[in-house]
Amino acid sequence: MDIKKILFKTSSIDVEKALPDALLLVSKDGKIEWVNDVAAELFETSKMHLLTSNINDFVENAISITKNAISQNKPVIIKSPNKEIYYDMTAREVEQGYVLDIRDVKDIQTQETPEDNTSVINRDKNNFLLKLTNDLKAPIQSIVGFSQAMSDGLGGKMSEQQEKYIRIINKNSTDLMYFIAKLLELSQTESGLDTPDKKTFDSLALINSVVRFNEQLYKDKDINLNVKPDESYKKNIITDADILKNIIQDLLEVILKSVDMGDINIILSTPDEEYIQSKNLPQGNYALISVTSSALLLSENDLDCMFDPYKIVDSSNRKNVLRAMVLASVKNLVKTLGGYIWVESQILKSTSFNILLPV
Asked: Alpha-carbon Rg of the chain, whole angstroms?
């Protein structure tokens, strides 16, 4: 096996010494077939040890992440299975398996352009927030719990004024807990560490389960919520069920928190080839999921900042920053699945969030 010819179709240069990155040839089942010296340095072991090992011993969920990197045709962040160490990886599929090009994140910061540096810094910031999850949530959870207990009378009888203050504390701390949860969710989706686990499942059953979960909330309001698959819709699809469930839940939360009446329809369809061509998308099998509200009416200013919480903070539309945070997370999750999302709003008629997923 000539790794030089596999990579460059030439033997005129010494590939092993010319490349500054760790380079590995891995079989489809994960066995490491070839490595360069840099790979041994990066993983702090010998080349012989690497050549008798599986890539999953050094990279968490290696094969799954590799397939994702190849399908999306972009670098991904990988993690050591035993340490809090992260690497940047690009992957290429060859007849013998996969060629992996891996770099330490610290090396990326010193080698890349200022724009790429910013991307790495943002990723590190998001990872930092994720690691502080418990430190951020625990104090607020205590306030929510104790204020609810006092409101229920477990701390003894209170005056009417005290009860009023406790209810305000409980409501504000509950709102703050939700805000923190969505901020952390946004950081999680921006970190690039989510790797889809694509399996076949009944998407119609999954969406109906999300609707049932929100049943009490929409029934307390004057809202009709319906799931409407058309005749062409193929309910058994291949994608990540958990990520799709989060996407539908977040979209419903956005709408249910914004309206008190009207109809919400989740319309499921299978777009034909002509529709795919009209969107200038690669040919393939797709599912189109549209979550439509007759009561959510958006202005042009709303649409401009819909998926960008960083932009909305500096605008006159700042009150909708939480909505933009949730929708930014949704957009990132849809992108993780290789899909597309856009919003359509008809003045005084309806607003529709449309998701097109390769399945």
From this structure: 25
